[in-house]
Amino acid sequence: MKTNPDNDTELHDKINRETGRVRWDELERHFAQGNVIYVSETLDLVDIAVRISHDDKEHIARWMGEGKIAKVSDVQAQSWAAGEVELWASVVHPFILVQPDKKQIN
After folding, report:
1. pLDDT digit string (tens) for 27-42?
2. pLDDT(18) > 90
3. Omega before 100 cis (within 30°)?
4. H or E stretch at 96
5. Strand-strand pairing, 95-100 and 36-39
6. Half-sphere CA count of 29, side-chain side, radius 13 A
7. Which listed residue, of 10, 43, 85, 86, carries a Cα 20 to 30 Å from 100's Cα?
């Protein structure tokens, strides 16, 4: 039986503990492999990681359609590299989900 992503507190807590800040230059080789996913600062990074872990296609597709989840673009990568940006990151194999720090965006 599949666990509901809304009630999977064990996975949520595990992902939360493993989420941290990382410099963009540490992610560039993963970006080159196409494995770095942008998560909008309007979404909860840990919640998105849990939903991806549960293969919650409905929500993920909606957020992708809204542009709130997408592969990191070349423009984003260049901007982050130029600014020596740190991002929040969470690994959901094979992807690394990244989210800009809200303070750095404003």
Report:
1. 999 999 999 999 999 9
2. yes
3. no
4. strand 95-100
5. parallel
6. 1
7. 10
**Tokens read off for 84:** 């020596």
CA 91, 8, 55, 98 torsion: positive or negative? Answer: negative
Q: Dihedral of the CA atoms 7, 12, 14, 19 (nearest 10)? A: 180
Residue 103: predicted pLDDT = 64
At 39, give phi and psi (nearest 5°): -120, 125
Cα–Cα distance measured from residue 35 to residue 50, given in angstroms and rounded to the nearest whole number? 17
Residue 91 structure tokens: 């690994």
Enter the tokens of residue 60.
């993920």
Looking at residue 3, its pLDDT comes to 62
* pLDDT tens string 65-90: 999 999 999 999 999 999 888 999 99
Look at residues 31, 59, 30, 28 and name the one whose alpha carbon lies nearest to residue 43. 59
